[in-house]
Design goal:
The chain has eight helices and no strands. The chain is mostly helical. The protein has one domain. Helix 3 packs parallel to helix 5 and helix 5 runs antiparallel to helix 7. The two termini are about 40 Å apart.
């Protein structure tokens, strides 16, 4: 490319990435604000006697998915939720006298579902940079792209939420998790086979 074309392409690239950078910057600012306000400490005292620790992964899953869908960014959701979810979950487990080893398992589950649900919400969001770039790259109408991937993503999200909740409630372990994985895969296959549409 010539110099003028190179500069024009570079500016176009800057324009494409600017919204994502702004969202990330605002998310980091919000995360820093929640940390300075000691939001995790407040939530811990407010919830430690009223929330069952085994339900925390499911609550965090739904929260992460909604925040990520609303902001269109999985990274910003992680930046917002991790400083709140991790200490709150740990404090609730300790306040309710949960065994240390089991508390670690619940905490790791919360960390994992935050990652998974953040990506789920980002994948479904029409304002997500990855969704926009995917529809542009495949030369597909943006809203059509969102509408066609939404049922699949929400089905996987619902099955994952149920499996994560059952796994936490039943105490985890490799045997339970493997059994739940096989059941979840069978359910997903059934949904695609029964409700999926064949494409010519």
């Amino acid at each position: 490319m010539r110099l003028a074309e190179t500069v024009s392409t570079m500016i176009t690239g800057f324009k494409t990435m600017l919204p994502a950078l702004l969202i990330l910057t605002m998310a980091w600012s919000l995360a820093a604000t929640t940390e300075e306000l000691h939001t995790a400490t407040f939530l811990t005292f407010a919830l430690q006697d009223s929330v069952n620790p085994f339900v925390m992964p499911m609550i965090i899953f739904v929260l992460a998915a909604v925040i990520s869908f609303s902001t269109g960014s999985s990274w910003s959701t992680m930046a917002i939720l991790y400083p709140i979810a991790i200490p709150t979950t740990w404090a609730i487990c300790m306040a309710q006298g949960i065994d240390h080893g089991l508390s670690i398992e619940i905490l790791l589950n919360v960390i994992a579902v935050t990652l998974a649900a953040s990506v789920l919400g980002d994948h479904c969001s029409p304002i997500s940079d990855t969704t926009i770039l995917s529809s542009l790259a495949s030369d597909c109408n943006h809203i059509d792209h969102v509408r066609t991937q939404l049922p699949y993503a929400l089905t996987v999200g619902g099955v994952s939420l149920a499996a994560a909740g059952l796994s936490t409630y039943l105490g985890g372990g490799w045997a339970i998790c493997t059994l739940l994985l096989l059941i979840a895969l069978a359910l997903l296959f059934f949904f695609v086979w029964r409700f999926g549409k064949k494409v010519d």
